[in-house]
Specification:
Helices cover 46% and strands 17% of the residues. It has a six-stranded mixed β-sheet, sandwiched between helices. A five-stranded mixed β-sheet has the order 2-1-3-11-4, with helices on both faces. About 5% of the residues have low confidence. The chain has 337 residues and is α/β, with parallel strands linked by helices. The chain is built from 16 helices and eleven strands. It has two domains: 201 residues, D-Maltodextrin-Binding Protein, domain 2, CATH 3.40.190.10; 103 residues, Periplasmic binding protein-like II (D-Maltodextrin-Binding Protein, domain 2), CATH 3.40.190. The relative contact order is 0.18.
Length: 337
């Protein structure tokens, strides 16, 4: 066999080897458990759909836990490595167990994502328009309900919880999942709702959007990523890769059009029309719902605790550094510059 034939044979073998190697690329599987399936978490879904996690060598097994208690349980039992939920469960857990608790390492959303609806349009609406009325607020002790009460009190209103003798009666006797149906059946004068229900009601002209709670609440660490202290200490390289992929998703959402974002997240919301998704994305963008980086906000964390204390769900604050680690987010942001 002459040299030319030998080189050709080697080239064919090399191509075959490379192709086989690509096919056998192994990703580290990460079980990510989320508190709910919501367009509110668009940067996360964008990072998955756009392949940013796989670029970092990670395969995401995304599970909807339908509840923060289930997210926390999955993390503590090591059934999942990373959880997406509000930081409040990590605060409650730390208060009760300072040896086995969760660490927050990246933030996703930066404010409340609910909207106040009424039965009729009100021009120049203010929270004072709720005086003498009732509003369906959701589950007692849930962050949406606590935040609603907080902003009403900040507006100078005397708030009653299931008490119609006060300025505003915030009703917690209707389950979160039943808020829309109950309101449409005549319960309450106002209601606090999330997307995509909000857009659906607007389009059907069954209720009127009056305000976003975020307008009054300001910055809150509403949704963040957490893991166990043990996993955090022993898997920083994995968490760094995860956070880097998330940051790519955040930058995509910051720079993409509403339609591009909607199309990217649509695989996670196949039952929602694309036009509705576009409206929802636009509405969340209008309230600056999404963090532009994974950096965890101390100001937002402290305001969350103020809200919890005002609601009498928390007796005193925990220190920011006890439950939050910034080193991974700081490194990822620095490396991307």
């Amino acid at each position: 066999m002459n040299l030319k034939k030998i080189f050709c044979a080697l080239a064919i073998l090399l191509v075959g080897f490379t192709t086989t190697s690509c096919r056998k690329t192994k990703y580290k599987k990460i079980k990510l458990v989320e508190v709910a399936r919501s367009i509110f978490y668009a940067p996360q879904y964008a990072a998955i759909t756009k392949g940013y996690f796989k670029e970092e060598g990670l395969e995401i097994d995304l599970i909807n836990a339908n509840g923060a208690d289930k997210v926390t349980a999955a993390l503590l039992s090591n059934d999942a490595q990373i959880g997406l939920q509000g930081p409040e469960p990590t605060i409650y857990l730390y208060k009760n167990n300072k040896s086995n608790y969760l660490i927050n390492f990246a933030q996703l959303t930066r404010t409340d994502g609910s909207f106040i609806f009424g039965r009729i349009p009100i021009e120049n609406f203010t929270l004072a328009d709720l005086k003498g009325k009732s509003i369906l607020g959701g589950r007692k002790g849930g962050v949406p309900e606590m935040t609603l009460e907080y902003v009403l009190k900040q507006a100078g209103l005397n708030v009653g919880q299931d008490d119609d003798t006060k300025d505003v009666n915030v009703r917690t006797d209707v389950a979160f999942a039943a808020l829309t149906g109950s309101f449409l059946e005549g319960e309450g004068d106002f209601v606090s709702l999330f997307e995509p229900t909000a857009t659906t009601l607007i389009n059907q002209k069954k209720a009127y959007l009056l305000a976003a709670t975020a307008e009054y609440a300001g910055e809150i660490t509403y949704t963040a990523y957490s893991t166990t202290l043990d996993y955090y200490n022993n898997n920083k390289e994995v968490l760094e890769k995860f956070t880097r992929a998330l940051y790519k998703g955040q930058k995509f959402v910051e720079n993409a059009t509403d339609k591009e974002i909607a199309e990217t997240v649509q695989p996670f919301f196949t039952d929602i029309n694309l036009d509705v998704l576009i409206e929802v994305v636009n509405r969340y963008r209008s309230i600056n719902a999404w963090c532009k980086t994974p950096m965890f906000s101390k100001e937002g964390f402290n305001r969350l605790q103020d809200i919890m204390i005002e609601a009498k769900e928390l007796d005193s604050k925990v220190e920011f550094n006890d439950l939050v680690r910034l080193d991974i987010a700081e490194k990822v942001i620095k490396d991307e510059k």
